[in-house]
Amino acid sequence: MKKFLAPVLVIALLMSCFIIPVSADTGELKLPFKLIPSKTVSMSKVDIGDATDMNFTYSMEEDMIGFMQECEDSEKKEALLKQLGIDDIAIDAQIDWALDDKDDWHHSEYWDDNEATRYFGLGYDKDGHSRTCEWDLLSIWPYAQTTNECWITRYAGNPDDPEDTRWNGEDFEGGVHRNGMKDVLKEGQYEIKRNDGEAYITIDYNEHTLYARMRYYVTVWDTDGNGNPVTRYLFSDWSDAASFGKDGNQWRPYTEDEIPAPVISDGYMTGEEFNDYPIVNYKPFPRI
Questions:
Q1: Mind giving me the DSSP string for 7-28?
Q2: What tens digit of pLDDT does each residue of 34-80 get?
Q3: Buried-most residue among 16, 108, 111, 112 (CB within 10 A)?
Q4: What is the rounded distance in angstroms from the CA atom of residue 32 to the CA atom of residue 14?
Q5: How far apart are CA 130 and CA 124, in angstroms?
């Protein structure tokens, strides 16, 4: 199977002209960018036959992009870490999904910041057991660019294999069960097919609808007054939902008659010429 189209995260710190005050009293972190979800999300089918894979695309705001781009310099990063008194800071993303029911999201307490996840990491309970299923994406590392993409709802496991933890989940001591795909998919939402002795599931998107949403989060690694390591997470709200399938939003290109005309303003002479004609420049704005 093809790996996620997601790069290794550029751990970003702001250029030295910005200050990120960390409150010793409240533990709050004032970020130099707006921690908001993507304003634009979309989803399309990955063309690999009847597999369940989808391509999810999400936007990034300019101030977050600038934060990441301007701080790739290792010397600036080292100086800022020392100046701010923190060990590190990173930007990441989570992608949640729902099938048929737009409110049947899989986000749970294990995606969030609590005593357990601060110690073991997002997705784990207080005993260090993974509590997310195969399609839950808690850590997608974005590029510092306007649009990012990754594959979601990928291989769900082999329904014929009783040892396949992707499909069956996993049991731990104390009656703890990590959900497999058979625990979160409902009967009638998928079909089991077999090829070369291996079973897999398919979803007919003429009959079903997949929804997906995202949120950004920032991880801060720090130390407390006693020198103990501290991990903090700051989350944006969730984005609007992208959709694909039976009830999904369908995109189509503008027709010739629908293309919005630009509004021309602030015209000025550039002082240059082309074929003896003066060149005029202007600022275009889309007509609302």
A1: PPP------TT----B-TTT--
A2: 999 999 999 999 988 889 999 999 999 999 998 888 778 888 778 77
A3: 111
A4: 7
A5: 4
